[in-house]
Amino acid sequence: xxxxxxPVTPVQKIPVSVLVVIHTAALDVLLIERSRQPGFxxxxxxxxxxxxxxxxxxxxxxxxxxxGIRVGSAAVPQAALRDWHLANVYEIYxxxxxxxxxxxxxxxxxxxxxxxxxxxxxxxxAREHRALVWLPWHEAAPRCFSASNADAIRQLPRRIQRx
Length: 163
Fold this sequence. Notes:
By secondary structure, the chain is of the alpha+beta class. It has a single domain, classed as Nucleoside Triphosphate Pyrophosphohydrolase (Alpha-Beta Complex), CATH 3.90.79. Helix content is 20%, strand content 31%. The chain has three helices and seven strands. The chain has helices spanning 55-67, 137-140, 147-162, and strands spanning 16-23, 28-34, 41-42, 44-47, 81-91, 106-115, 129-136. The strands form two sheets. A four-stranded mixed sheet has the order 4-1-6-5. It has a three-stranded antiparallel sheet with strand order 3-2-7.
């Protein structure tokens, strides 16, 4: 009997992601701190799971996985999730490149915002995030470690006004 062990290869990420700026009507923004990188504050982010996963579905999935907030619920209707039709292409931090196929070093990030009622409960995914804070948008932006995340938060008042 052959007892050879087949090596398990980790699933590699697709270099297409979503960034979701969660905010209240008063433009207080939710920031979450990464568990493995203390001091790295960010909005909800995550890669699509399959090449055919719609971006809005990925955004809603990532929001629920990372915060427990369910898009499409009575408290947070689907219409509260806004696609900005904005894509940022950036270099993947060397720290995270091992998650992608060999030779991949750029990611395309699609920006969304999600308006939630003030006081919306947040349940963090402990394996990913260790703390949360709600801040006025102008205080939240400089706290982000990602330039594209900070820029999206700076655009928030103008983007929401346009809607």
